[in-house]
Amino acid sequence: MSLNSLFFVTFCKTTRGTRPCPSHASASPRPLFLIPRLWGCSLGVIRKVLRKTARGYLSWNRSLSLDPWLRYSPVRSILRRSTDLTVGRVLDVGSGTAGLASSLAVPTVALDVAFPGTGPASRKSLTERVKASATHLPFRNSSFGAVVSIDMIEHLALDDRPNALRELFRVAEKLVILGFPFGNRSARFDREALEVEHSRGLSTGWREEHAAHGIPRDAEHAEVLAAATSFHPKARVVWHGHEGIWGLRMRWKLQFIIPKGSPIYGLAFYPLYWFHRLGRRRNAYRRIYVARL
User: Fold this and answer.
1) Is the pLDDT of residue 63 over 60?
2) Element of type H or E holding 81
3) Cβ atoms within 10 Å, residue 224
4) DSSP calls for 189-253
């Protein structure tokens, strides 16, 4: 069968329930790559397929929550590769409404001081929400096979960070995955972005907390290592950069041209987020720690 004929057959399979094309009617694959040979079908069928495709795209575009998806991408990758670990439930500390459970089907306890607003749909049957502080986790030692915390530490006051880090390792049994903005470049980007956002009348409370409490640096790095070995003397801790600052700055500037509500937001931003989640960046905004206990 020629490639052109294959496209034709595939298109016809999408039209079940409408006026049929000259041949074939079966299950309904995605109708996104069916343009090459539409002339064999009626104009009404073509319009219905195009309207259905447009509605599907707009629904997908409205549902996108790309920032949490990118933040948790190394966590998903590590958990999927950890086939030697039977981690059971995962504790996600500082999850907010769009934590790990919104993008990975694992039994998760999502913990935060509050769960305001709405976020991406999580798998509710796999998620339990707990309101508590990271500095006093209401769980016994080694309660969770894996503990995750992404972009939480920088929102705590400097004096609270060591205790929060110790709590993460106290309740973990096998694995801790920890990530936060790190270093002078990240702090400089947040300061510059905050000035521009204020000049435009925008309020980003989370970035204001970054500026008020300070982006983690070498002191927090030392505290991560100390917390790991204080509860797990044989812990092996590695770290790497994640999300390059150049890509982050480009997306941040682009959002003023193509805002979240734009119908072309997904077309513009999804490829960028997909690419920027890859690799281990040298000039990274975020540092990811992986501790095997």
Assistant:
1) yes
2) helix 73-81
3) 24
4) HHHHHHHHHHHTT---HHHHHHHHH----HHHHHHHHHHHHHH-TT-EEEEEEEEEHHHHHHHHH
Q: How many residues does the chain have?
A: 293
Helices 265-276, 43-63: axis angle to 10 degrees equals: 50
Q: Tell me the residue range of the domain where 35 lies.
A: 3-62
Total domains in the chain come to 2
pLDDT band (50, 70, 90) for residue 38: low
Q: What is the pTM of this model?
A: 0.81
Query: Which residue has tokens 């204001």?
Result: 208
Write the CATH number for 184.
Answer: 3.40.50.150
- For residue range 137-160, list pLDDT tens digits in order: 999 999 999 999 999 999 999 999
Is residue 191 located within the same domain as residue 262? yes
Q: Which amino acid is at 271?
A: P
Closest by CA to 40, choosing from 64, 20, 54, is 20
50 plus 84 within the same structural domain? no
Q: Is the dihedral of CA 179, 180, 181, 184 positive or negative?
A: negative
166, 227 Cβ separation under 8 angstroms: yes
Considering 22-31, 206-215, 271-280, the range whose residues carry the highest mean pLDDT is 206-215
Percent of the chain with pLDDT over 90: 61
At 5 the pLDDT is 40
- For the chain, the helix, strand and coil percentages under 3-state DSSP, each to the nearest 5: 45, 15, 40
C-alpha 185/C-alpha 153 separation (Å) is 17
Bridge partners (DSSP) of residue 289 are 178, 239
252-282 burial string, b = 16+ CB within 10 Å, else e?
eeeeeebeeeeeebbeebeebbeebbeeebe
Q: Tell me how far apart the alpha carbons of residues 259 and 251 are, in angstroms, rounded to a whole number.
A: 11
